[in-house]
Amino acid sequence: MLFLAQISPAMFQRLSIIVLSVATVAAVSCKKSPETVTYAGTNLPLNAAQVAPTPAVASPATGTLNASYDNTTRTMSYTVTWSNTTDSVTAIRIQGPADGGYNGAILQSFANSTTSNTPPRRKSGSFSQSLAVDNVVVKETELLAGLYYVTVYTKASAAYPTGELRGQLTFQRSN
């Protein structure tokens, strides 16, 4: 085993250069952590005009959607607020991918049940939840392109079979 006292000055200089070179290569090749980017969609409108196909019976219901997305945690959090639905809310769904005016698959659904994590059975109210963006079922590129939407379903399903309210999720970078 060599000790620094036994190394010649020329060997010490070479060893120092090698150690410094290895440290430099290691530092340069380290992968940079991804930048945390958050996106927000605030006061996005929910109304019957966005439901596809547009219901034959006009609905007095209105609502708003507030959502945020963090690319590091890959989580979208959202709050749906509604008022004046023709009957009590029975389900809230995230659906897509689909542009406005078109329908997509159900990606997440909260229907009334005995659990506490369901929308309240009222004609006016609010509901908050989170959605994992796993890039398998829910893809970040589709989410940020506005291809997902929220639909509010009510007991008046005969008049509104594809939902009484709908709102597209659209985001703006917030940081």
Structural description of this entry:
It is a single chain. The model has no long low-confidence stretch (mean pLDDT 86). This protein has helices spanning 9-29, 140-144, and strands spanning 38-46, 62-70, 75-83, 89-96, 105-111, 125-132, 149-154, 165-168, 172-173. The protein has one domain (38-173): Immunoglobulin-like, CATH 2.60.40. The strands form 2 sheets. Strands 6-3-2-1-9 form a 5-stranded antiparallel β-sheet, with no helix packed on it. A 4-stranded antiparallel β-sheet has the order 5-4-7-8, with no helix packed on it. The protein has 175 residues and is α+β, with helices and mostly antiparallel strands. 15% of the residues lie in helices and 35% in strands.
- Tell me the distance between the termini: 54 Å
Main sheet record? 5 strands, antiparallel
- Series of H and E elements: HEEEEEEHEEE
Could you say which structural class the secondary elements and strand pairing correspond to?
alpha+beta
Morphology? rod-shaped
Largest sheet strand order: 6-3-2-1-9
Q: Summarize the amount of helix as a percent range.
A: 10-25%
CATH architecture name: Sandwich
Q: Which radius of gyration do the C-alpha atoms yield?
A: 26 Å
The CATH topology label is Immunoglobulin-like
Average pLDDT value?
86
The low-confidence runs, each spanning 5 or more residues with pLDDT under 50, are: none
Strand content: 35-45%
CATH class: Mainly Beta
Please tally the β strands and state the result. Answer: 9
* Total domain units: 1
Q: What is the number of helices?
A: 2
Characterize the quaternary organization of these chains: single chain
